[in-house]
Amino acid sequence: MESNVDATDGETVILNCIDPNASSLHEDNEEIVISTVEVSQWDLSSLAHRPIIKIKANRQRLVQQSSYFHGLLCGSFSESCFDSISIHWDMESLLSMLRFLFGCSLDLTSENFLPLYEAALFFGVEKLLLVCRSWLNYVISEGRIWPPPLHLEDLIHIWEYGRENATDFIPQLTDCLARNFIWMTSCDSFHNVPFELLLSCVKHPCLTVDSEKHLCDSILLWLAANTIPYDLLNSTGDARLEIFTEIRTSLLSLPFAAGKRRCPLFSKFAERSVDAILSLATSSSFSLANILGGGDFSQLRIRLTECTKILDLSGCPQISLPLLLLSMLPFSYSVDTMLTKKLNQLPLKLERFNMDVSRIPWETFPVLTFEAVEVVDVSNCPMLHLEAAIECFSKSFPSLTTLKAAYTSNFRTMKLYQLLQRCPLLSNIDLTVESNPVIPAKVSVISSFPVVKLQISTSSNEETCPAVPTFHFSRRLSNITNLILEGRTDIYDSDLHNIAECCPSLCCINLNVCTSITDSGISVILLKCVGLHSIFACDTFFAHNCVLSLCRDISRFDGVAMKMEKNTNSLAYKLQILHIGGCKAISEITLLELISQLYRVRSLCLRETQLDDNSLYKFSGSSLEMLDVSDTKVSCHAVGHVVRRSPHLKCLIARGCRHLLKEESNILENSPALSYNCPVLYYELGKSCNLEEISLGWGFSFFSLEALRPAIKMLRTFIVGLGGSLGEDGLKLVPTFCPWLETLILYFQVISDSVVRNILETLKNLQVLALCYCFGEISSLSFQFSAPCLRKLKLERVTAQMTNDDLLTLAQNCMNITELSLLGCRRLNSESQDTISNGWPGLISLHLEDCGEVTAKGVTSLMNCQALEDLLLRHNFTDRRFLSIVKIARCNLKRRTLDSMKSGPCTTPVHAETLILTWDSEKLSRTVVKERL
Questions:
Q1: What digits encode the pLDDT tens for the residues 81-97?
Q2: DSSP label at 246?
Q3: Among 135, 650, 651, 798, which residue carries the largest CB count within 10 Å?
Q4: In whole angstroms, what is the distance from residue 628 CA to residue 609 CA?
Q5: What is the pLDDT of residues 134-187, one digit of tens each?
Q6: Helices 126-139 and 91-101 sit at what angle, rounded to 10 degrees?
Q7: In terms of domain of life, where is this protein from (predicted)?
Q8: Of 646, 639, 651, 633, residue with least CA distance to 584
Q9: Distance, CA of 190 to CA of 218 (rounded, Å)
Q10: Which of 578, 585, 586, 583 minimizes the C-alpha distance to 540?
């Protein structure tokens, strides 16, 4: 409320306010006189830009509220008897302060906080200082919802001001930024953070990050933006590199640490990190005392704070149950000798076959509770006993809603009940495993039988392990809405029955490549979970019964025909995602009925099904964003019909559709005028869509690319397969038409060095490049441009002349590759292994087929790629830990007739069959298939 003091006593003083930063030339030089009597009516937006303003203010109010004015107007200064005094200050903050002095409310923001605080400090307005401090404490308080109303740039300025002026809010700011470190690193101005502030945050006990990998990446990002070039830095040293000692390198993920061995700033730490990780991961008995020499355990404690929302341990083979428990204990307990001994005994107990984890004396481990944790990711952590870890999660993370445990082969699906029971708030679960390559619809099985199990002996004084109970549902229904079981062959129809009973709120289920379930089992889920809107069932036995369940409110299958009426009460009508690619058991008439009911679907995968034009023409939806019709019998006109109805289409996958080429030929024959145009499909795409991904083959040409140009300006993924022919000119236009490409995959295209160089030089965001069975060869000239973003590279039958030196050039310019596939590089020898190991130490996947003498002297050097998870060496294999699938190709030697006629007997290895060993958490199976995988 504004003050009326001016009107009551009449004692006023004129304040000649002069903005020292304002321009002397102002459009309006008219003298402005305002009064604090009308303070609530001041128009700050217009007044703030004036260089000079005269203000009539009550002398007494100024004296009472400001120590500056008290000293100036009541002291021995000559101004004390003046009726007018001059003040040189920023106009906007001065006017805001005067409004506050005379009773108006104050609107503090990130932009005006510091100017107002400085004004309050200079003019001695204690009430304003108190308001500013209270506001800052509130916006950076622990209980606030982030991101904060303050920008990082503003927080930096406040911190720098506080440091220069020795204010008392430095600790609060540091605490705030440490707790919200991830938000800070995501800001554009992160590189402007002063090193002292960054170091204080990293050292802070409340530092909150999702993972140690995130912390390391953030520090590297900051140093890269704030240091001299790497080579000079390495030679002269930099005291700031000591910040790396704050990273708990033994807790980094193995692929990340191995990949950083080529980073000049972090190479030494990365080497130590890899050694520590492998030491922890390969230790037969976990001993904290042995690993640390009885020293400080803090470097082995996973960062968990009161503000931790996401715990990401993915890709860490060293994470075990004792290590997890160590991090959940109060710090004082972690150095307790007896408790450490109990932690060390846990692995021995867990090694018992089918050990009942409920018998572990959990009460002896006084774990802390972290209420904020909502997401835990322990994917690809082979040393972690997941069933036991679930007990820990249930005690320490009561708010857990999302558990990602993909590629954890030691977790049995039958224990899903335990998970649902222990963590009642869970709504999202990911239990994906490596997909079994033996998919009945895709391979011809010669023989299959389980390998004899190794019996684990137990001493006589050990407890007898009880039988593991079959999964069953609880009377208390689960909150699960999203369940991913992709690739699990240990899930059966009975499990689906129980899941359907236990999870009535299920909205999304992923059963891709679950080959042990049947059409009837899947249909039970569809019948009982009426809230389902997303179904992933690719490469399963999804068929007739499932379609009946989806359309049950409107259809009856009588063996001859189906009703075609549309009913908004059917599950099919409400579906948003349906992926049933590879489900060849669905008949054409059944598929037609299903498609006619898919009205709201946004993502539809029908690859390798009996899909034809009749079915596709029945599609009547208008919300489609992704369509996969690859390897089906559809034509351009039918796909064009769907495109025309789908203005929001972002992804179209139509490789392997031979009828697309057939129709284009017919159009060109019947209409010569269209020879330089394109079929209706590409015209419709170019006219109405903004694509992010497209995959085409038969019938796709240079003219098709021209027609697509309006639709592919923001394209991220571009795949051209067999039957497509862009030509060299078309490929040179791709970077121009699609400047944001991240993935480019080309099969059977005409390429050259100039094409590849243009791609690498122009596409700065390219992460995946695959050149497979292309016409023409490329040399080392193609890879003389730096491509730091490239992560995946496939060169299959396109670099026959590649030498060890060429491979070295590739490694120097594409140093961040994590997945490499080379096929047909016959001039390589065993020395190339060193190039691969040293050039890409962080490789996760490596395929070397028909590559000369690469493996002639064994594959010892490749073992330096210690993060490898996928290794394919045609005609070789070496044992690796943590493998769940092994494929061994067997070849027969056959005579090459033409060669033998000219130069005598000459044979070549020809693939005969493939032996596949798979581990599904319960048994090791051995399968022999005819097809080459």
A1: 678 888 999 999 999 99
A2: G
A3: 798
A4: 11
A5: 998 888 876 665 666 678 898 898 899 888 887 778 888 899 899 999 999 999
A6: 110
A7: Eukaryota
A8: 633
A9: 9
A10: 583
